[in-house]
Amino acid sequence: MDKVVKTANKEAAQVLEWAESRNLETCFTRAERLKPCPIGETGACCKVCHMGPCRLVGKNTEEEARGVCGATLPVVAARNLVRMIAAGTACHGDHGRDMAFTLLAVANGDTKDFQIKDVKKLYRVAGYLNIEFEGRPVNDVAKDVAIKLLEDFGRQRGVVNFIKRAPKKTQERWEKWGILPRGIDREIAESLDRTTMGMDADPDSLLTHGLRTALSNGWGGSMISTEITDILFGTPMPIKAEASLGIFKDEEVNLVIHGHEPSLAETIVDVVSEPELVAYAMTKGAKGINLGGMCCTANEVMMRHGIPTAGGFTNQELGIMTGLIDAMVVDVQCIMPALTEISKKFHTKVLTTSEKVRLPGAQHVQFDEHRAKEIAREIVKIAINNFPNRKKEGSHITEKFPVIAGFSQEYIEYMQGGKWRASFRPLNDAIMAGRVRGVVGMAGCDNPRFPATGVHKFLATELIKNDVLVVSTGCSSASCATAGFLTPEMAIENAGPGLREVCEAIGIPPILHLGSCVDNTRILTIATAMAAEGGLSDEIGGMPAVGIAPEFITEKAISIGCYFAASGVPVIFGGESPVGASSEVTRIMTEVWFERFKGALHFEPDPEKILEMAIDYIDKAREALKLKKYEPGRFGTERVLMDMAARREIERAAKPHLGIY
């Protein structure tokens, strides 16, 4: 019998094989043992009241299959999806809220351990919010920005502030169909209200409000988080790093930061190399302190500081199984409760830092932004003190892969024309000419029910072969990073000739690392800038662009997919549909949404069909825009994009290029 492939990452597979030979449990073995409920998996189970749970299965039609209250299968499936959207929006909304409160604390002088690192970005955001900034103290501007963004959470009427950043035509579609989001908490609350027993029983009405809730995430909570994180910690620009479970060092204290909120992680980055802490580590027999990241926190500190990543969601238990992690510090989101159980088999200390995430068996060190560095030093010392307890047992990995990370909207504009001529014109021109066929935003988790990271790797390589530029976030970025895909050399070796020429002319990889999962909003603002540049669509909808979540897991991913669909981007999720039991709900999400918003939400378990669907959407968008027909292999012999090079020379003449090439 052939061996089941559980992960496509060879370093992860090596650790997993070692673990299984010792009967150690992981998410992979649990996924193999626990099969999905066939009723709940497709959205045919309703458990929102105590007359149920009602399982709507059997030979009846969708309209005939009814719960005790009379809710039909489409209603039940739609309710289930909307509740997922609400939960995902709440998760990212709280992230954005916490960042806004941190900015307010900095502006008020309540914390001395943070400061505004990107004043230019602060002024840019103030401009979006119609806040005067010229001639005013920086902290006064920051206070006004923080307060105005905090209003987005509790607003009862009007719209969230960043909605006004979307293309006018996109906003008009939202207004026409009644999905302009009022306040983030307002839409989440109404989602829960509408989906209780005895409330909304129209699938289209339910799903329409689901889109409004999702938009409050994409153009609200998540965008707020991204913008404030840039203001406080710096807007990313390309930086070198490494990725793999091999980033841990035998003779140094290994400290891992895991989760999503960057405030504590940034503080640990600040203090970990302090001479006093390094000297203290040496008194314990270590030669230094090695800081690494896991999941989306890894993306945050990688793209600003070059801190290496050990990978995405499915690597967190495997990291502990290397036997080299002295402490794993977690905050919020995507934290496996199993971490504390597996840590008992090794010496690793698991430290929780948020009131929202408590794990039995973990040591809790409450993060307080007013004492950020004090707490960060305490955490580093816990890791140092645990170094002498390290056991020899573990699956040690040595291979690492180079990574170029940190492509913000601002840097992508800059790299196409320099400081004074920054724009998206060169990229738009390359798409119009057919050198770049289209763009795919690839996001979402790596999933132990797949060969984990495998669908990400397959799609990334196949898309760039077809001259499709890939922008990645979250664990999709980690999947590409741990495969060695995030380098400019990847373009030379694997990209189609047109995309390769564009990448060589600019000096970029064919897969651009845009950051963490909340940084999917960078894709929205990039698409908005491309629409404003002209030559393509005058709205986000209709562009030759597709979103893909190859191995999605979370409710956050559903919310993300829905805010992209509402914004005009067709989205394809890898895996079985959580509403697959209802053909009516599926029709609304695909046909009706595409007609109204030019976006759609699909679920497809076959990676080759995902690729085919994505390419088909891109080619049909090109045809509708009357762009030159894409011809494989058409480019590759001529010198291209001299206008970009000329623009870069203008910048170099005035000031040395700040990038890495």
Structure notes:
This protein has 661 residues and is an alpha/beta fold. It folds into 3 domains: 73-233, Substrate Binding Domain Of Dnak, Chain:A, Domain 2, CATH 1.20.1270.30; 239-389, Rossmann fold; 406-652, Rossmann fold, CATH 3.40.50. Helices cover 48% and strands 10% of the residues. It has helices spanning 10-21, 27-33, 73-107, 119-128, 138-154, 168-176, 184-194, 203-233, 262-271, 275-283, 295-305, 316-321, 338-343, 372-386, 409-415, 425-433, 454-465, 474-481, 489-494, 497-506, 520-533, 555-567, 583-597, 607-624, 642-654; strands at residues 45-46, 54-55, 239-243, 253-258, 289-294, 327-330, 349-352, 363-364, 401-405, 438-442, 468-472, 511-513, 545-549, 570-574, 600-604. The chain has a 6-stranded parallel sheet with strand order 12-11-10-13-14-15, sandwiched between helices. It has a 5-stranded parallel sheet with strand order 5-4-6-7-8. Strand 14, helix 23 (583-597) and strand 15 (600-604) form a beta-alpha-beta unit. The radius of gyration is 24 Å and the shape is globular. Residues 637-661 have low confidence and may be disordered.
